[in-house]
Specification:
The structure is a homodimer of 551-residue chains. The first copy, chain A, is α+β, with helices and mostly antiparallel strands. Chain A contains 18 helices and 25 strands. In chain A, strand 1 and strand 2 form a beta hairpin. In chain A, helix 6 packs across helix 10. Chain A is globular. The N terminus of chain A is likely disordered. Chains A and B meet through helix 1, strand 2, helix 6, strand 3 and strand 4 of A and helix 1, strand 2, helix 6, strand 3 and strand 4 of B. Strand 5 of chain A pairs antiparallel with strand 5 of chain B. Chains A, B: This is proline--tRNA ligase. Chains A, B: It is an enzyme of class 6 (ligase).
Chain lengths: 551, 551
């Protein structure tokens, strides 16, 4: 679970308090917040939206932005990363707090990012031979108890249904925190012989874990995810599957989300409750904390032995199946926000962005208006036809400057401006979100279909590449090789990641965590050549491990 | 709720009993069931899968099929509709029973039908201006109590979480049965002025209703659905939206599912708990019972008044918003099964079918095998490239005859057979699932790309059209106009739908229900011309109503 420095909402939001807050009229929408209220932004306090509108201390940095367009102003990322994150989520309308402590409402703009993730992965899962299906979310309590380390890992986090249809239930029902138990219960009924294997399924679902310290997207009481579950005839096949799926996640992270994750194996202490081996992709956030962004577990025969999931092999022998499970959740949306972005707000990689291009038409006179709007509409059609996600902001209530700030804060990769002079020249101005000022602008781009489409597609590709490059060099400059525990402590205290040879005990690992707040994020697949000596014990070491503080 | 003649699983499946059943080795997969067990099929008893493998009385009709291919044999639809339905669900691997009473596991083949539904509707929802998002599923109990008729309608069906993270909760949490309350709680925070309206969102989610009498897909304790929620500035806009969405559902039913639903308005007694008006699409199942297949509610200001969801109008006045909600669920999958299909199993309309064409290669000698499999692979590629959903069944463990039976039972619209002679002639044999024997076969269809693709596409279109025509004439021949209560009783007792002028009281409506088992399914939008007299009271009537027994 890493260092617990996350803001706690627990004391602020009992359900009944939340209801009261609402009926007393606490409102969040930027357009109607007073400037002062919109600037309080929960800076550094991780407070709930309900309190956002009630308290009004302001930070100097935020005040500077206020004069321009208060609704778009977020606490600068360089001033307070956590406040920036919460501001971006609120102002860009990505998510909101639900009435029950620790729950989250995913708003359309945030949900559209999740849909981008789903669209990509869903295709990859099917290409690799998996079928979608759906398991019920209510699990008999007795199921959870069957696998010893599983119950130990999950029992403190369970939500339990005890009343149904007005009656006390004979057996408490667990609201699924993950589905390995019920999956095995069903697999025992579907798997008879080796011919039924491999069995490879996936579900897109909600899961519930009663977390004490929550943070939007990163750790919420209920979240959305996909969970893959497979059963195989041999340990080799299960291992191959677990590795294949962590590779699917890695490719997604690099190619779509522009997040240069480190792929590796978890330490024993950090392995999933019930797994033999856990593979992970670890991402470095903008504050250099690590985020576990996806995991793939080789479950061995742990669950199949607990549930009796057996098959008859080719020799007529009964054997327990070998299993995997793997998941990516809405947490990944938080990872995208915290990897990219700058002082003025969100920055979305083009492959993930719900809106890739925003068009802002500009006019002063009614005469100009018709021509500008016609050109806007034509440019919109050209880009949509080319498969580019376009949004036109032609509202008359806001100035172009306000719109620029607003869509920059929302992280739209490209902006197209169309004014009367552009119409006269049959050209447009294109601005990159990630390159401020003139260097990011292309003037006089022809409205001609092929040149416009080509230009926009090239720019989007450049931005995508640039995001990954920037994140990679940031990552690499913040991973430091260490040769001793003292060096590790220094590196961690600077907020960086430490990489060093490790063959010490679980107890030593716990000691590092207690003394520095850092955990082993993974033993990376990419290992340096040569002999290694454990920086903690001086004994020979097979591998280097990466240590970092994490979300 | 209609006549309660549905099978009850309640006494069979307490959670702990389910666990025992599994560990004692009750298995469902056709390939390993004994013939006798596979034929018990729960005929007429609506029993659970757990009991399927344990009891073995057989019906004569089923025995006849058994000699051919026991795993594919279902109770003929003409012999016992309910047993047929449960058999089809089990044998075609559409769904299975979950360990908790009344819950359902949706297996890949059944889930793929749901994905077809999702894919179509998701596009339509976005085209009509709605955005997807996600609301938490835990709702404070106090929310449910705020709207009087809502709590009355839903409180008997609630599942309640009372323990979270090992502690008794201060306020019980409802596992969402529907989301109007939490939606309004959030809308109060997002809606300030008329400029924020309309607000139009949708979510794909699971919902829980503690039903006592369950039936796979049709009524389960947990089910999947989409729920749309909108807020508008005027009652006219809300009404227009409610009508627009029932029309989206209607088009989906006709054009995709080939189900000729009747669209209309619910009676007061059958209106959604909390709605001012409920529109419905009512489908006639193969046993002539009605299925409410989708609903769209004009909620008026009922929830906005209960939750204080207000906006400032153009004149600066505070007003409550006007709302709608609308939903289609996994119940629709049950509707597709029960509308189409015949004695030998499922029949899926091509637009919905997860597999539109199954290819069965046929060979005897190893010499023939290579040529046949090459041709099969080439035909598969041609059809896939044309966007047709193809499955090749080249397993060597089953005979072609077994495969024919199996894929017919699974409802695949078209089968392509490729044998050595076909390879020699560069042609294939194509068989329609819905036309048995020679009349449904096309011999010597050329393997040439354009003629093969054209042929297959035409046949799929013909099947789609034929399904709708067949269902429409079945529906029309089973809706009978009535002029008196006596006539209605006669029609209902024959299992048909009765249509007659109605302006009687809610009490009279209840009387019809108690005496005949039929309810008002709807006041159809399509009304006969001319003056009408209520068949119950003799008073003038504005409209005819349709009465039927229902699921």
């Amino acid at each position: 679970m890493g260092a617990l420095r996350l803001p706690s909402l627990a004391h602020l939001l009992t359900p009944s308090a939340a209801v009261r807050a609402t009926s007393s009229g606490a409102h969040l929408r930027p357009a109607t917040l007073s400037v002062a209220a919109s600037l309080s932004g929960g800076a550094g306090r991780g407070i709930s939206t309900q309190s956002l509108a009630k308290e009004a201390p302001s930070s100097p940095a935020a005040d500077r932005k206020a004069s321009a367009s208060p609704e778009c102003a977020v606490t600068p990322r360089s001033v307070d990363f956590n406040a920036w994150y919460l501001d971006v989520i609120a102002k860009a309308e990505l998510a909101d707090y639900g009435p029950v402590r620790g729950t989250m409402v995913i708003r359309p703009y945030g949900y559209a990012i999740w849909e981008s993730i789903q669209d990509y992965l869903n295709v990859k899962f099917k290409e690799t031979g998996h079928s979608n299906m759906y398991f019920p979310q209510f699990i008999p309590y007795s199921f959870i108890e069957k696998e010893a380390s599983h119950v130990e890992g999950f029992s403190p986090e369970l939500a339990l249904v005890t009343i149904g249809g007005g009656k006390e239930l004979e057996e408490k029902l667990v609201v699924r925190p993950t589905s390995e138990t019920i999956v095995n219960h069903m697999f025992t009924q579907w798997i008879q012989s080796y011919r039924d294997l491999p069995l490879m399924v996936n579900q897109w679902a909600n899961v519930t874990r009663w977390e004490m310290r929550t943070k939007p997207f990163i750790r919420t009481l209920e979240f959305l995810w996909q969970e893959g579950h497979t059963a195989h005839a041999t340990p080799e096949e299960a291992e191959k599957e677990a590795l294949q799926m962590i590779d699917v996640y890695k490719k997604f992270a690099y190619e779509q989300a522009a997040i240069p994750v480190i792929v590796g194996r978890k330490s024993r202490a950090e392995t999933f409750a019930g797994a033999s081996r856990t593979y992970t992709i670890e991402a470095m956030m903008g504050d250099r904390k690590a985020l576990q962004a996806g995991t793939s577990h080789n479950l061995g025969q742990n669950f199949s032995r607990a549930f009796g999931t057996q098959f008859t092999d080719e020799n007529g022998q009964r054997q327990h199946v070998w299993q995997t499970s793997w998941a990516i959740s809405t947490r990944f949306v938080g990872g995208i926000i915290m990897t990219h972005g700058d002082d003025t707000g969100l920055m979305l990689p083009p492959m993930i962005a719900p809106i890739q291009v925003v068009i802002v038409p500009i006019w002063k006179t009614e005469d100009d208006k018709t021509g500008v709007l016609n050109a806007t509409s034509s440019v919109e059609t050209i880009l949509k036809t080319a498969g580019i996600k376009v949004k036109v902001d032609d509202s008359e209530q806001r100035t172009p400057g306000w719109k620029y700030n607003f869509w920059e804060m929302k992280g739209v990769p490209l902006r197209i401006e169309i004014g009367p002079r552009d119409v006269a020249n049959a050209s447009v101005v294109i601005s990159r979100r990630d390159v401020p000022g003139k260097p990011g602008k292309d003037f006089g781009v022809s409205m001609d279909t092929s040149s416009l489409v080509g230009h926009v597609k090239n720019r989007l590709q450049e931005i995508q590449t640039s995001f990954l490059q920037k994140a990679t060099s940031f990552r690499d400059s913040n991973i430091i090789d260490v040769k001793s525990y003292e060096e590790l402590k220094a590196v961690i205290s600077e907020g960086k990641w430490a990489r060093g040879p490790w063959s010490a005990s679980d107890t030593d690992e716990l000691k590092v965590k207690e003394e520095t707040g850092a955990t082993i994020r993974c033993f990376p697949f990419e290992q340096p050549e040569g002999q290694k000596k454990c920086f903690m014990t001086g004994n020979p070491a097979q591998e280097v491990a990466i240590f970092a503080k994490s979300y």
